[in-house]
Specification:
By secondary structure, this protein is an alpha+beta fold. The chain is 32% helix and 22% strand.
């Protein structure tokens, strides 16, 4: 447990003081996510969907939150997720009581209606609790009107949302500061709060026991048994995170948040509330390493739909329902400390060649599992044509940088083409093999140094961790000497204290320009295993999976020196690669693939 000796973080003008990122937890139901701080305050929630405006935006210096917290200032906090779920239990220990608050977004979820469940229980002693609800729709530009209490349910509405709150009939509602109330619980007592936000008025009863029962049943059905995998508890948690971030429309957001800093005051703060096709493919391939699962089918379906809709002009990112990502804009907030108030993402307009390679690898996995539907098979042809016509174009690559002839993008599409060639023998397979051979030969000619090491790009000899992913997927083949040479060079130049960085920034030591990239640590584990170094693979896996907060959530980056998370959370592709490592590094997994 941790403590904040001066008591709960203060609330000023509808905003809560921030905590370090590792201390937050996240609730998610597939259609939206909520961020919970250690004091039981929900400080981030967009409604009704991931990419909607926030109702609670205190996380990034805005206004609005929903709190349940002990009145006694002298307490320590802790918490945990119930196994295989995103049901979060916050726990507070005071001088004479132990209090738990069980939180979840109700499932199954609806895109136009969210239900947030909060159940307080006193395990020992007696406790006084405070409930505070200050909704600020539209990132604080809208206010709820006409709050009124009808029986045990508060109702109110904004220009776009209708609110109902069950369980706070003892509280009062101030037009400026929202709802406030206190209540006392004795040992064994429970008290339920149910918050509903919807695009229209709802008539269904807010029945806590039924809502909790359905949510628990849904989680039991969507997260599989992982007892045969390496790190089974973490693998199940990874499944739960990926499921929580995946919409019923198929899209999986990269993370639940926006503008959390990757490096303080550096301008590197982005909106990740959208579905990147590459990230979706990573997650789908990770699930495929374990076995058939609805998350895999969702990834295949969503990726195929985007390719069929947009062809060679496919965007790197979309909203979870396949819509466009809005242009970048800013909000009138100070942002999370060191971050910004940015919404929208300009990367959606980039050309990223490797996205086609990852999509083809995903479709190849579907074909091997006999799960390639006709729509996805048509998408294969679209992707192959796009690669054939565009592979020589400079692209932004995995790291979404300047347009260059990145080596990893070319090797990635070769992986995808060869995967299809093996999975779909016949004319399609032969065509893919021929295109792959042409791309590989030219990439080898331009990007392989005489000493057998792969360059970062055609004009850059530096170390590049992005090369580990195609290497782990089988391009070049496992017996090619360039694999071991390249992997050793990456480890020599980009590793520090067991963590791996993306690439070196000229003139800046590792760790000062940015944090270690956790995706890279897991891909190093996969690459080591692919090359027969199981001991090295396990070492990288164990070290990298330690870089999470108390909630078990990973961000994109890890500050090795300060042992802190950096960037938006939870980062979907990091959890996906953890899952793939857990599947491939279990005791019965074959080392040769």
């Amino acid at each position: 447990m941790n403590n904040r000796a001066d008591g709960p973080a203060p609330v000023r003008d509808g905003a809560c003081s921030p905590w370090v990122l590792r201390d937050y937890a996240v609730l998610a139901d597939g259609e939206r996510g909520a961020v919970v701080d250690p004091e039981g305050r929900i400080v981030w929630l967009c409604a009704p969907r991931w990419h909607s405006d926030a109702v609670f935006s205190s996380l990034i210096g805005g206004s609005g939150y929903f709190a349940v917290e002990p009145l006694e200032r002298w307490h320590v906090w802790g918490g945990y997720y119930e196994d295989g779920t995103l049901i979060r239990v916050s726990r507070w220990v005071t001088s004479d009581s132990v209090i738990e608050c069980r939180d979840a977004l109700a499932m199954p979820a609806s895109p136009d209606r969210l239900v947030l469940l909060r159940r307080m229980r006193v395990e020992r002693g007696e406790a006084r609790l405070r409930v505070s609800l200050d909704p600020r729709p539209g990132f604080g530009t809208d206010r709820l009107r006409g709050p009124r209490l009808e029986g045990d349910v508060w109702t109110a509405r904004s220009s776009e949302l209708c609110l109902r709150l069950l369980g706070a009939h003892h509280a009062s509602w101030n037009p400026e500061s929202g709802l406030r109330g206190e209540f006392r619980l004795h040992k064994g007592d429970e008290h339920d709060l149910v918050l509903e936000l919807a695009t229209g008025e709802q008539a269904s009863p807010l029945e806590p026991r039924c809502l909790w029962a359905r949510t628990e049943e849904e989680w039991r059905g969507v997260v599989p048994d992982c007892s045969g995998l390496a790190a089974p508890r973490d693998a199940r948690h990874a499944y739960a995170v990926l499921r929580g971030l995946t919409s019923s429309a198929g899209g999986m957001v990269a993370a639940a948040t926006t503008s959390l800093p990757e490096r303080a005051n550096s301008g590197r703060s982005y909106d990740y509330r959208f579905a990147w096709l590459r990230d979706q493919c990573y997650a789908g391939l990770a699930v495929a390493a374990h076995g058939p699962h609805p998350l895999f089918d969702s990834a295949v379906r969503f990726t195929a739909e985007r390719l069929l809709d947009d062809g060679a002009g496919v965007h790197p990112a979309y909203s979870v329902d396949g819509g466009p990502v809005p242009e970048e804009d800013t909000l009138p907030f100070p942002g999370y400390p060191g971050g910004s108030d940015r919404i929208g993402n300009q990367a959606a307009e980039q050309f990223q060649l490797d996205t086609f390679g990852e999509a083809l690898q995903l479709f190849a996995a579907a074909a091997r599992m006999d799960r390639l539907e006709p729509e996805a098979e048509r998408a294969v042809t679209v992707a192959v044509d796009a690669v054939r016509d565009n592979w020589q174009r400079p692209d932004a690559g995995l790291w979404e940088l300047e347009q260059r002839w990145w080596t990893h993008s070319r090797l990635g599409v070769v992986c995808g083409l060869r995967g299809i060639a093996q999975a779909l023998p016949g004319p399609t397979g032969r065509r893919c093999a021929e295109i792959a051979d042409v791309i590989y030969a030219e990439t080898r000619r331009r990007c392989l140094r005489p000493d057998g090491r792969w360059r970062r790009a055609v004009d850059d000899d530096g170390a590049e961790a992005a090369l580990l992913l195609p290497l782990a997927r089988g391009c070049p083949s496992a017996d090619d000497p360039s694999n071991a040479i390249t992997r050793a060079f990456i480890e020599e130049r980009l590793a520090e204290d067991g963590y791996l960085y993306r690439f070196a920034h000229p003139g800046v030591p590792l760790g000062e320009a940015e944090g270690a990239f956790l995706l890279c640590g897991f891909t190093m584990a996969l690459a080591a295993d692919h090359l027969g170094d199981r001991t090295g693979a396990l070492r990288w896996f164990e070290r990298t999976r330690a870089a999470c907060g108390p909630s078990g959530l990973f961000a994109e980056e890890y500050d090795v020196r300060q042992r802190q998370l950096r960037g938006n959370l939870p980062q979907a592709f990091v959890h996906g690669l953890l899952l793939e490592c857990a599947a491939r590094l279990n005791d019965t997994s074959s080392r040769s693939r």
